């Protein structure tokens, strides 16, 4: 079954006199439990697509369905803020951690801002620290951790509210090969244990090999789709 579907998404940007068609009539479905990789050269529209799927940006045309229900206001404030906080977690290439806060404070932040009570925060954070294997690093600051550990803090923060959809933009772009593999194993584990669905934008075929499906973009068009051998998806 499906968790997120877009139909006929188009997005143009004005760049002076020039109109750039970042996405042209893109349709795709993210199935429950699936890891979807998105590949394509620089400028092919991957980030634009991820921002629209994450309700961070508005398409010019097209429809978005969440859990098979058409969401007319998916990308419109204030509804989009609710969509993001309830359904979506974001992971970035640059980790985007707050260096003045400890690991546990970084991970707790979304819950503190939501006004969740302290005892519940402690329970939820401990669960996620175990999931990303960072027990013992609670009181370190990001600058005291390796790149892979920092990305695992960012992942714990992204999943702290138990989002059903995880969106990752080049999550291994700053990591070495073996660390990237560890992070991909973690994405697989989270998909299985937390019943998530994940979309990963990547340039790296090794990263894409962990996905269930790979979509290739070129000049704003979804060009090719490739099914991998990782077949445990509930389609
Ligand atoms: P990718 O993530 O595949 O590198 P992007 O989605 O970032 O591609 O960009 C797609 C196209 O849209 C590119 O030509 C890019 O220059 C253009 N673009 C992206 N964001 C903007 C913007 N805010 N203003 C103008 N052009 C943009
Ligand atoms: P990159 O993958 O190139 O390092 P990011 O994916 O971190 O870049 O962010 C690309 C752009 O998306 C940012 O410049 C920002 O405008 C926007 N963005 C990213 N995350 C958020 C967010 N949580 N809320 C609002 N805008 C965001």
Walk me through what this model shows:
The chain has 235 residues and is of the alpha/beta class. The chain has seven helices and ten strands. The longest helix is centred in the C-terminal third of the chain and has 17 residues, at 177-193. A six-stranded mixed beta sheet has the order 6-7-8-3-9-10. Strands 2-1-4-5 form a four-stranded antiparallel beta sheet, with helices on one face. 32% of the residues lie in helices and 30% in strands. Strand 7 (165-169), helix 6 (177-193) and strand 8 form a beta-alpha-beta unit. The structure holds adenosine-5'-diphosphate (2 copies). Residues 13, 15, 20, 22, 40, 42-48 line the site of one adenosine-5'-diphosphate.
Question: What keywords describe this structure?
Answer:
single chain; alpha/beta; six-stranded mixed sheet; 7 helices; 10 strands; binds adenosine-5'-diphosphate
Brief synopsis:
Helices cover 32% and strands 30% of the residues. With 235 residues, the protein is α/β, with parallel strands linked by helices.
Sheet with most strands: 6 strands, mixed
Helix content: 25-40%
Order of helices and strands: EEEHEEHEHHHEHEHEE
Q: How many β-strand runs?
A: 10
C-alpha Rg, in Å?
Answer: 18 Å
Bound molecules: adenosine-5'-diphosphate
Shape designation = globular
> What is the strand content?
25-35%
Q: Order the strands across the largest sheet as they lie in space.
A: 6-7-8-3-9-10
The end-to-end span amounts to 5 Å
Which stretches are poorly predicted, pLDDT < 50 over at least 5 residues? none
Q: Mean of residue pLDDT? A: 95
Structural class: alpha/beta
What is the number of helices? 7
